[in-house]
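Risk mitigation, structural track. In case the binding assays with (2R)-2,3-dihydroxypropanoic acid fail to produce interpretable data, a predicted complex structure has been prepared as a fallback.
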Amino acid sequence: MTTGKPRVLATRHFPADVEARLAANFDALLNPDDRIYDGPALVKAAAGFDGIMCAAGDALTAATIAALPSSVRIIATFSVGYEHVDVAAAARRGIAVSNTPDVLTDATADITLLCLLGAARRAYEGMTMLQNHGWTGWTPTQLMGVHVTGKRLGILGMGRIGQAVADRARAFRMQIHYSNRTRLPAALEKGAVFHPDADAMLPHCDFLSINAPMTPATRKWVNAERIARLPQGAVVVNTARGGVVDDEALIAALKSGRLAAAGLDVFDGEPRIHAGYYGLPNAFLLPHMGSATVETRNAMGFRALDNLEAFLLRSESPPDLVKTS
Ligand code: DGY
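Fallback model:
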């Protein structure tokens, strides 16, 4: 039965309040089992749909987008990152792409500090010791980690999330260094040291936090050469995209002790993470949960819906239209 409303295909199972609004405003096909569509399955399922609401992890490659039915006019991703959608291929088909900026800034910055502290303070080893009934009591030398207060934090990518990370780190009296395509105005820089050349920032990073998007320029940016420029015993944190890190190089540096620790929420090729991370005591690892709070996931869904509604119900440009460069 057709409702006369625009049709939207949800590629994933979204939070209940998000799906309720999606179903109220559109003729929506939900995915309660959270079945993953591969490219051909998505192309087939999208027949007759006006919009697709997808998420990080759905690979909307150039080939998939080229094969989408002509009914599809918008792809709204439930994520701020959109490297999983080939935006240029969408533009060639006249398909609008939107994302969900702003709403996950705080949650992602929070998880960055969790990764930073968890790595520095050897949280994984402590938890493992307890869970394995291995704690025999407090000792003066047990699980001594890296002190955070007063240390230098280098942030690669000083956008919204990078700035929110800096704000939190200032509460730990960390000295902020950053590298970004453009220097921030003084009011946003708040005394942080700007490095126009990211490589030149590395020797100043007791901690390095990756908050830059995944682009051809940032792919495997944290490589052996750059790790060698960090101070001995530095800590690397990545809550942006796994592909920014060369896993082989990072794992080797964690094993050799060149780096004290790493705190990672994202992985190249996730969820199939590099096997070398398993069992590494100085790797504090989380399963891409930076935005995973009820408030944030609802806000991401509502933001995706704002875009779908503007475009499909009111024939307006989606407020978070992703522009092709
Ligand atoms: C995003 O929105 O890009 C996040 O990585 C998903 O939490």
